[in-house]
Write a structure and sequence with these properties.
- The complex is a heterotrimer of chains A (275), B (263) and C (286).
- By secondary structure, chain A is an all-alpha fold.
- Chain A folds into 2 domains: 47 residues; 212 residues, MetI-like fold (Orthogonal Bundle).
- Helix content of chain A is 82%, strand content 0%.
- The two termini of chain A are 42 Å apart.
- Chain B has a domain of 150 residues: Rossmann fold (3-Layer(aba) Sandwich), CATH 3.40.50.
- In chain B, strand 7, helix 6 and strand 8 form a beta-alpha-beta unit.
- Chain C folds into 2 domains: 44 residues; 210 residues, Orthogonal Bundle (MetI-like fold), CATH 1.10.3720.10.
- The chains are: A mainly alpha (275), B alpha/beta (263), C mainly alpha (286).
- Chains in contact: A-B, A-C, B-C.
- The interface between A and C is large, with 55 and 63 residues.
């Protein structure tokens, strides 16, 4: 689809739209960067002694994946980790949203619980893990408690500010229509707070993702975090790196294609600007 | 007398940011602004006025043609040309006084001299008492006064103004236009003022350059010989000399707008 | 009676009625929790190995510091001062990582943010690095550096650098171009543009980045010390838990929370507010 501009030098060729979009969004630079990084990585691993222990070459890492998939271990680990993340996040949302709404609706309640929530948020989920391990041992319950604990606070705090951000005038308008409290929460507060809820969910799930990995390492429950930890123990550095790349990729995919679109959707659909 | 600002045969193309198609913004533009003259550039939106200003300011490199300020070729931005931008381009993290003295600070003028100069221009633009405020505490009109004072303070040879009053309300705009006129008298600066507002151009300009629609060409030059001290809105609004000039410019600009289609 | 009334009015004046109300309301859950803790100790609903008595948590400090020869010994990290040593080694790691990570992150972020091509290339790298930052690096760090300080600092630096870098980059990119143009037309050099436009313009975003990096970094450090450290608060609670010294674990957790709350409230939050309010800047990249 090359066109020439009418008055000027006819040699000015307009590049294809797809290529332009690719370069405009920095596709070429990214490609260059990835190739460059792989190259540097290969060079380093070819000059250091004992690369299989310290930094296996990219190809070695790549081929180690074949073996893992062949054995069926890899999908199993990813599945376990994702299962924990999803269930933990649902739990976090299920507790955090009602809690946040409750706090947001009543000034007295929120004044009362805000400081203590802040205090507990400051104790990271990972820090309480040893206590919970003492209570319940290295069980599935322990991991879920840590995930729930980690995801809960960002969600609750965001829902709280979301509820606060709903203009009073909407609530008053509903009141004059004779709406009940339940009705107001369902039809005004929740939809109004939705963009914040979405942001909180994204943040909370982000925290939870880190907590899952750390929790698996510390409690020895099978999953991606456990896998890279064990691989290190058994000197399989190629698998460690593969696991790390997987962790990064899964999170980016999740964030890009699930969490961000939801967030953007709620913000755009209502035409709400989030500040 | 040598003109302060000379543009000769300036032609400019650039690729459109979104579609990548070639935009022919300026076509063989030649104009001169003599010392102490207030020149207004008028034209329909998208006629390359801002492109022209960016080239004169040195923010946009040009290939075809010449641009000279005081006989020296323009290459890159410099303190010899002061620019007042359309948006509020004063820095939010500097107080009014520090914004106004910014040019002097960059030139390395000592602090006490800088303070003296800043105080002088604060008074000139009528911002006394606001020296220590931050831009977010000021109204749109006041921000543009700061912008103006900042440019004046570094004493440029030529002042370039890019629709500086486009973003303020109508009432403030009238006040600012009269103020700018007063400042032009007081400082005798050579000014190139870009606008799409015909009234504004006729009110402020000694000389109006009317541009065609894209590719921007110089279509006509209208000289306005109303003495500067007579330029007050309530007197001029019914002054036949002024209205004649304004209608002349309006007709010239209208021709361009009407051939522009639905843009 | 009247003195009490006078006192209450004086207190209300001193703190302000609304603030006082908030302080009292906010204290209620803490007091309740402390009371429940006390009741639990008295009645042993849950055995001390689950919830240790408050007194033993307090005593744990002195047990850990038993062989400490006084204040100077604690400051110089003498071998007997176990508790303060763990606190100092965690804080020292944070300090050192900030000292290295902040300037690096800000410098790279400013340079990358000013140049669109570099920014385009590095943005996805930043996203990727952020998403595996923290403890996912831990096994590899252990392979490279072994168990100890180097590993924990590597994890912390990794977290701090990428967050600061990324936020600086976004901040610089959100600074309107017209500011750069205006400084350049005043005759400003490239260095002027960096120090007077992009750095201050990105400052709110940089400060947010610092606050985030401290939040994530502190958590990552605790986890790193548990798995790959040989000292520090994280190491302390992990070892204590494996020896079922729950009072030490509680002590460590409380100290971790208090240190974070103190840093965030007294340093990071005021810093964030200061830049944003003073300059009336509202643009903040999400």
């Amino acid at each position: 689809m090359a066109t020439t501009s009418p008055s000027l030098a006819p040699s000015r060729v307009v590049p294809s739209r797809r290529w332009r979009r690719f370069t405009k969004e920095g596709g070429a630079e990214i490609l260059l960067l990835i190739v460059g990084l792989l190259l540097v990585w290969s060079i380093i691993s070819s000059i250091i002694p004992n690369p299989s222990r310290y930094l296996p070459a990219p190809l070695v890492v790549f081929f180690s994946s074949g073996e893992l998939i062949w054995k069926g271990l890899f999908p199993n680990y990813v599945g376990q980790t994702l299962y924990r993340l999803i269930l933990g996040s649902i739990l976090g949302l299920g507790v955090g949203i009602p809690f946040g709404v409750l706090l947001g609706l009543n000034r007295t309640v929120s004044d009362m619980f805000y400081p203590i929530m802040n205090f507990f948020q400051s104790i990271s989920g990972i820090a309480i893990l040893p206590i919970i391990v003492v209570w319940w041992g290295n069980s599935e319950k322990t991991v879920f408690t840590v995930i729930l604990y980690t995801a809960l606070f960002p969600i609750a705090f965001n829902v709280l500010s979301g509820v606060r951000s709903v203009p009073r005038i909407y609530v008053n308008a509903m009141r004059t229509l004779g709406a009940s409290n339940y009705c107001i929460v369902r039809d005004v507060i929740l939809p109004g707070a939705l963009p914040y809820i979405a942001t909180g969910a994204r943040l909370g799930i982000g925290f939870a993702w880190r907590a899952v990995i750390a929790g698996e390492m510390l409690t020895g429950r099978r999953g991606l975090g456990w896998w890279i930890f064990t691989a290190q123990d058994t000197d399989h550095t190629d698998q460690v790196i593969l696991g790390m790349l997987m962790i990064g990729c899964i999170w980016i995919l999740l964030d890009r294609y699930a969490l961000r679109p939801i967030e953007a959707d709620t913000i755009q659909r209502w035409g709400l600007v989030q500040r | 007398m040598q003109a302060k600002l000379v543009v000769q045969g300036l032609t400019h193309h650039y690729p459109d940011e979104y579609t990548g198609e070639d935009v022919h913004a300026l076509d063989n533009v030649s104009l001169e602004v003599e010392d102490g003259i207030f020149a207004a550039v008028v034209g329909p939106s998208g006629c390359g006025k801002t492109t022209l200003l960016n080239i004169l300011a040195g923010l946009l490199p040009y290939r075809e043609g010449h641009v000279k300020v005081d006989g020296v070729d323009v290459h890159g931005p410099g303190p010899d040309r002061g620019v007042v931008f359309q948006e509020h381009a004063i820095l939010p993290w500097r107080s009014v006084a520090r914004n106004i003295g910014h040019g002097l600070e960059i030139q390395g003028v000592p602090a006490d001299e800088r303070q003296r100069k800043v105080a002088e221009f604060v008074e000139l633009v009528g911002l006394g008492g606001f020296e220590d405020r931050y831009p977010h505490e000021l109204s749109g009109g006041m921000k543009q006064r700061v912008s103006l004072a900042r440019t004046l303070c570094s004493n440029p040879i030529v002042m370039l103004m890019d629709e500086p009053f486009a973003a303020v309300d109508a009432q403030t705009r009238i006040t600012l236009q009269e103020e700018l006129n007063r400042i032009a008298i007081a400082t005798r600066k050579t000014i190139l003022f870009i606008t799409h507002n015909v009234d504004e151009a006729a009110f402020l300009g000694d000389k109006c350059f009317i541009f065609t629609r894209r590719p921007g060409k110089l279509k006509a030059t209208v000289k306005i010989n109303i003495p500067r001290d007579r330029r007050i809105w309530k007197d001029l609004i019914n002054d036949s000399e002024f209205t004649n000039h304004r209608d002349e410019i309006l007709t010239l600009v209208r021709e361009e707008v009407s051939t522009l289609g639905d843009d | 009676m009247s003195t009490i009334q006078e006192l209450s009015i004086a207190v209300q004046r001193r703190f302000g009625r609304q603030r006082l109300r908030r302080i009292i309301l906010g204290a209620i859950p803490f007091v309740t929790l402390a009371f429940l803790w006390y009741l639990n100790t008295a009645n042993e609903w849950l055995p001390p190995v689950y919830i240790p008595p408050f007194a033993s948590v307090w005593e744990a400090i002195f047990l850990l510091e038993e062989e400490c020869m006084g204040f100077m010994d604690a400051l110089t990290m003498g071998s007997g001062c176990m508790f303060t040593n763990h606190v100092f080694s965690s804080l020292g790691r944070v300090g050192l990582s900030l000292l290295i990570g902040l300037p690096l992150g800000i410098a790279f972020g400013v340079v990358a943010g000013m140049n669109r091509r570099i920014a385009n290339a590095l943005e996805p790298l930043g996203i990727f690095a952020n998403s595996i930052s923290g403890i996912a690096w831990l096994p590899l760090a252990i392979v490279w550096f072994g168990i100890g300080t180097a590993t924990t600092i590597f994890i912390l630096l990794n977290t701090i650098f990428w967050l600061v870098f990324f936020n600086t980059l976004l901040g610089v990119r959100s600074v309107p171009r017209v500011y750069e143009n205006s400084v350049r037309t005043l005759g400003g050099s490239r260095w002027n543009v960096i120090t007077q436009v992009y750095f201050p313009g990105a400052l709110p975003s940089i400060v947010t980045g610092i606050r985030m990096s401290m939040g994530f970094g502190w958590r990552a450090l605790i986890a790193a010390e548990m798995i790959g450290g040989d000292s520090g608060l994280g190491f302390m609670i992990f070892v204590s838990a494996s020896e079922y010294k729950v009072e030490e674990v509680f002590l460590g957790v409380l100290v971790i929370a208090l240190i974070w709350m103190f840093t965030d409230r007294t340093m990071l939050v005021p810093l964030e507010k200061w830049t944003i309010q003073r300059w009336g800047l509202v643009w903040r990249p999400s």
